[in-house]
Amino acid sequence: MKESELRERTRVLLDEVHPDDEGVSRVDFRSAQFDHGLALVHFPEGLGGFGLSPKLQAVVNEEIQSHAKTFYENLVVNPIGIGMGAPVVLTYGSEEQKRTLIKRIYTGEDIWCQMFSEPSAGSDVAGLSTRAVRDGDDWVLNGQKVWTTLAHVSKWGMLLARTNPDVPKHDGLSYFLLDMESPGVDVRPLYQITAEAEFNEVFLNDVRIPHEQMLGAEGQGWRVAITTLMNERSALGGGSSRKGGGPVSVLTRILAESGAQRSPAEQAILEDKATQLYIRAELLRLTTQRAKATQRSGNPGPEGSVGKLAQAEIYKDVWETCVAALGDDGLLYEPGYELRRPTGDFRGTGESSAEKHILQAKYQLLRSQANSIEGGTSEIMRNILGERVLGLPGEPRVDKEIAWKDVPRG
Amino acid sequence: MAFEFSDEHEELRRTVRQFFENESDETKVRELMASERGFEDATWKQMAEELGLAGLIVPEIHGGADFGAVELAIVMEEMGRALLCAPYLSSAVLATSAILLAAEETAQKELLPRLASGDATATLAFAEKVSPWDLSAIAMAAEGDGASVTLSGEKTFVLDGTTADEIVVVARSNGNLTLFQVAGDAAGLTREALPPLDPTRKLAKLRFESTPAARISTGDAEPALRRALARTVTALASEQLGGSQRCLEMATDYAKTRLQFGRPIGSYQAIKHQCADMLVEVEFARSAAYSAAFALDEDDDGAEVAAAMAKSFCSEAYSHAAKRNLQIHGGMGFTWEHPAHLYLKRAKSSEMLFGSPISHRAKVAAAVGIGSA
Ligand SMILES: Cc1cc2nc3c(=O)[nH]c(=O)nc-3n(C[C@H](O)[C@H](O)[C@H](O)COP(=O)(O)OP(=O)(O)OC[C@H]3O[C@@H](n4cnc5c(N)ncnc54)[C@H](O)[C@@H]3O)c2cc1C
Q1: CA A85 – ligand 1 centroid, Å
Q2: Which of B224, B267, B272, B353 is the most buried (most CB within 10 A)?
Q3: CA atoms of A346 and A334, how far apart (whole Å)
Q4: What is the ipTM of this complex?
């Protein structure tokens, strides 16, 4: 399909339902967008797309943005569901699951979360301990998950559990879709350094999951998990889709608006630093674009770790530079540290008053510290690039050949 | 330069470390950082009376211990390690140094014994909205020529400004920078707490509206204030060193005990090398902070430059150590529950307090002849 045809189809959609119109809710609009195949253009026909290259989604988005003030970002609507849940269901789900789950993910009617990490299994997620035991048509789960982002508002969890402790760790895992409303699921907030609880700990006490909700075969959970993780990395690593967009645009604004407070020498140093960051962010965008151009459809591979690693490190540096540019104002933190569930007020990408930028930068100085941890740490990204992409020999392993139950943990 | 600590110095370090381990443990820090007042009177009194810390650098004739910058460095390093919540930097260091170096004798006699005994705290209000750390940018001017004047205007980033019993205000009189004493509860003074990035150190904005004030210095106090700030910045560099060292210890302890893939994470070079790099930086920070303190006590001409060097280096070393410590702790390091963020916030805010690393490096550059004339 040509770009011009996609644009034409997008205009037809907008004629039919317009997101700015009163009475047209997010669900109404995104539901129609899905039915028109303009939601996830790289998905098959009937499931929100046309089987096109993923880079063409940008054409649709552009067209919507140029004809409407309202634009729903996937990352805001349902970051984990759209970034990871949908591709995983598409790859491993039954026809029935694809039909019932994917659209509700896209519209944001069902929020999804990822239940991989546990207290003793983070980087080494394949070493996890949550047990699933077969009982008739169900599996019965016991264990604890941590850092589960959005679990408190989720309908579905992508859950990795151990079904066989007597084989090496990768071989004893299975992958489940957990209905978060099931009895025995206990979600408790975990507060972050911003004083917000985006993530949770989730306790599982004799939670029953029907066998049909296992994705992939028993013992094949690691393969499904890898698909999930690679999609996560590409979701977390794209950089901005617009030249000069994203965090760097905030830095540019802050430098322009607060210049009078600084000595010319300090201004020159910060400008050079900002320019270096602008260039790195731009090259991240172009590298992502290049990677997308060669990927037709299907799931991303280990090279996605380039973008994940680079984005984490660039963004952390950008936010820190923003606060350095604020100078003495950076001593103050207006949101305060009252423990709370996030509201997202000053993280928004929407409005753009100077004040809002400043608050966003201060907040992100703290929040971005997690960029190099969530979705796989920067150290692990470097290991993946070294070992999976460049083919360098791995570290000596003590846990690969032996039964999971015999591996030291802590 | 000798850098030698005597047995008495080591004893001082042991004593204060022990005291802060008991009186400023993490639970206490969290309790105080969430409180409005930010410190505990009983502990402050104990620090003053039992350990002589409030009057550490106050001369004996004014009731102090008469110690110098080196002893202060030791104490500040321990406070930084423990993230002590107390008006020490504001009262016992900043205000005390300003009074010692710039105030008249009668004022010293009246104020210093009260500060040394812990009966009262003081702070120095000098920063204004425009170029806050630049003494020459101070614009507030006193009304009246005599011993009693009135002050109007605003001071910001005042350390412990809402709790200090005495406020030493820097304002102009006939164009000269001059110290004025204002009671914390004076008429026409409004004290507003500012929301700090680092909740373990309280900041305030003070509004003066024809507030009565007593003149406590004569002539131009700018050179003396400059030295008082160099002393304060040197002490702060030691505090930053103490925090960095603690981050290094937390990170290495965790790296030895946390297992992933069946091995301690410290056995991976990605982690081991980060710890090693942190060690090098902390050792450099130590040299910077100690040499600046020794230079002050030896009346070295280079003391102000050494202070600027120490502030710029220790600031960044602390930020790096705090961020690395958080990273090495993984998800746990990003939680409210873990102390890593308390150090990060202290590091980032003390990096900006009294001027950025770039501005302190500019002072070094000018002094050592870097740059075109
Ligand atoms: C904000 C946030 C949101 C998150 N959301 C989710 C979520 O929704 N669902 C979910 O399942 N998880 C989530 N996580 C968890 C995240 O995936 C883990 O924190 C991460 O994988 C690291 O695991 P860990 O915290 O156990 O740290 P550890 O794995 O214990 O790592 C500690 C340190 O050791 C290093 N390290 C470990 N192994 C190696 C190695 N082999 N070589 C070199 N260095 C190594 C790490 O890089 C890190 O610096 C989230 C985390 C954060 C911070």
Answers
A1: 20
A2: B353
A3: 11
A4: 0.96
